Amino acid sequence: MVLVVQKYGGTSVGSVERIQTVAQRLLKTVKAGNSLVVVVSAMGKTTDGLVKLAHEISANPSRREMDMLLSTGEQVSIALLAMALQELGQPAISLTGAQVGIVTEAQYSRARIFSIHTERISRHINEGKVVVVAGFQGISSLTDLEITTLGRGGSDTSAVALAASLGADRCEIYTDVPGILTADPRLVPDAQLMDEITCDEMLELASLGAKVLHPRAVEIARNYGMPLVVLSSWTDDPGTKVISPTPQPRSLEGLEIARSVDAVEFDTDQAKVAMLRVPDHPGVAAQLFGEIAGQDLDVDLIIQSIHEGNTNDIAFSVSKGILKRAEAVAEAIAPAFRSPTNPSADEAEVLVESNIAKIAIAGAGMIGHPGIAAQMFTTLANAGINIQMISTSEVKVSCVIDAADCNRAIAVLCDQFNIKSSPARLPTELTDNSLAASEGSKLNQGKFRKSDTTNSGVETLHATSLQSTPVRGVALDQNQARLAIRYVPDRPGMAARIFSILAEQTISVDMIIQSQRCRVIDGIPTRDIAFTVAQAEAENAQQILQEAAPILGYGEVLLDADIAKVSIVGAGMIGQPGVAARMFAALSQHQINIQMITTSEIKISCVVNKEQGVTALQAIHQAFGLAGNQQVEVPA
Ligand code: ADP
Ligand code: ASP
Ligand code: MG
Fold first, then answer.
1. C-alpha to C-alpha distance for 599 and 400, rounded to whole angstroms
2. Stretches in the chain below the pLDDT threshold 50
């Protein structure tokens, strides 16, 4: 018998009629010979309604009571769906997270799943019942039965975690669109359906604002190799497959918790080019990266921090072998940025640094767990390692450090995050740049994963057919605000202290950028650090940081809530020059100024003015030829 876990989202169970339609579908699946576990969300916008109710009573309700409240939404929909099935003559039973035994960590409103007790579900399946489970909720312990929720959108995560725990044959996520599209069809009407997408790509897209899947659901599917598909609740179309690599065997204990960090990655074949004091207006990044792409040079990390006066600093990394050419392009273009109409830009200058290495931690377990980036910075600081550049996504934190520190950084990070590293894979060529350059990058890159018995180096993509288009999807996040801390003393441990303070207040930080420009204040070299946080937490974060300023010795803390983050994602951009240039050119053509840039191997994110967010999204969707002529219907 095939065991399938299906999940239906809020819109799909938004009314009695829709619940009945879902019941009909389930019956068909059972009749076709499948055993079924069904996870449902709360009906329609129930959860939003409950949040609103709470805020009518308290501006800052206790997180425990919020979880008590929000978890009720799913209890309604599971009971109704079980009744609808019973009406059709199909035996069914509804179960809450507590009744199943979905055990989470003791963290209200953002709990990660520790383990799922499957005995009761299995018993009911064997009795021939469809088991209907409340998504989004769990309990913190089997004794206290404290109700926890997984975070908004968390029913997807419940479903995939259940599928993994039950050893299901597949997990199907039914929603109100036909599958995963190249963009949110509510913002980009000509977005196209994808047949398939890799887990890595989906993880980035999901964490950058594509709420069609909860990123933690994608991570679990990847870790346990669970076949995952996203499809429409209204049609029989095949939807979008999310493709996982074959995983290493992994325990179901500590499901989401054992590994908040899944991998430590390094790349020593990196050199940095920084352009300081370039003008802050639309088109500058497009021009610079356009020239670089014109020379067929591939850039890796790109970072642009917040502007100062009316100039910006842009830094990027390239493999060592092409540093000279990249530097030449930057030098050639610099005079253009020293125009008389831009007096403050007259000191535009190019800096290069070839003895650097990139070190990163990766894993969706860090989403909503602000302590993890801070832990990375603290670990590096304790080892006396200074961080030159930081670039983050929600699922990855990358730091550029001195190449000489790379081995030590790998060792302390693998130790800190309990990741096995095999000395055979440590970068031995660190001191030999010529070798590194001539042998190509692969020699100098590696990835250590938790369950590795042998380290396989950089993971190859599984679905090679997906690599032909550099950009697979675009996303917009309009719920972020930007904070900037001026004049942070440039010494090991500062980033660690700043982000630890925020982590202690459970404020999650995304997209951290450290400026290139070093200013000497009272004899102390300083840099700015800018980052984005959820809008709801921005003022609190600003206040906390301002209070810590006298102790930590930095300057002002600036807040800008009028921002949007627009991103492109695609595994095909690895090793393909010109992708960043195309994105920046699309923004420039629409007179959209880029305020911040960060990248990872498979994504580029830009912070722009909030008002221009949707235009920016549409422009880049168009620029990468993602638009099609079929319009997707989106229900109200
Ligand atoms: P559910 O209640 O089924 O979990 P959600 O509202 O959480 O549904 O997620 C589905 C919605 O995600 C779609 O209606 C769509 O507006 C939005 N969305 C954002 N980005 C994408 C994307 N790339 N592909 C498909 N849908 C997307
Ligand atoms: N009902 C919850 C929410 O609205 C969980 C979910 O729908 O996935 O966030
Ligand atoms: Mg959802």
1. 13
2. 345, 422-443, 451-467
| CA of 218 relative to ligand 3 center, distance in Å | 12
Q: Cα(192)–Cα(214) distance, rounded to whole angstroms? A: 20
CB 141 within 8 A of CB 104: no
For the beta carbon of residue 155, count every other beta carbon within 10 angstroms: 29
Q: Which of 599, 60, 36, 595 is nearest to 318 (CA)?
A: 599
Q: Is 210 in the pocket of ligand 1 (CB under 6 A)?
A: yes
- Nearest ligand (C-alpha, residue 158): 2
For 61, 63, 271, 355, 572, the CA distances from 401, given in Å and listed in that order, are 42, 38, 11, 9, 27
**Residue 9 identity (one-letter amino acid):** G
Residues with CB under 5 A from ligand 3 (ion): 9, 153
Q: Among residues of the chain, what percentage have pLDDT more than 70?
A: 91
40 strand-pairing partners = 8, 134
CA of 18 to the centre of ligand 2 (A): 17
The reported pTM is 0.87
pLDDT the model gives residue 310:
77
Exposure of 353 in the CB half-sphere (CA atoms within 13 A)? 19
- The whole-number pLDDT of residue 430 equals 35
Q: What is the predicted pLDDT for the residue at 465?
A: 39
What b-and-e string marks burial along 216-249, b requiring 16 or more CB atoms within 10 Å of the CB?
Answer: bbbbbbbbbbbbbbbbbbbeeeebbbbbbbeeee
Report pLDDT digits (tens) over 438-458: 233 344 667 676 543 233 333
Predicted pLDDT of residue 198: 94
Burial of residue 482 (CB within 10 Å: 0-12, 13-18, 19+) is: buried
Q: What domains lie within the chain, and their CATH numbers?
A: 2-243 (3.40.1160.10)
Q: What is the reported pLDDT for 452?
A: 37
Task: Tell me the C-alpha distance between 483 and 390, whole Å.
Answer: 15
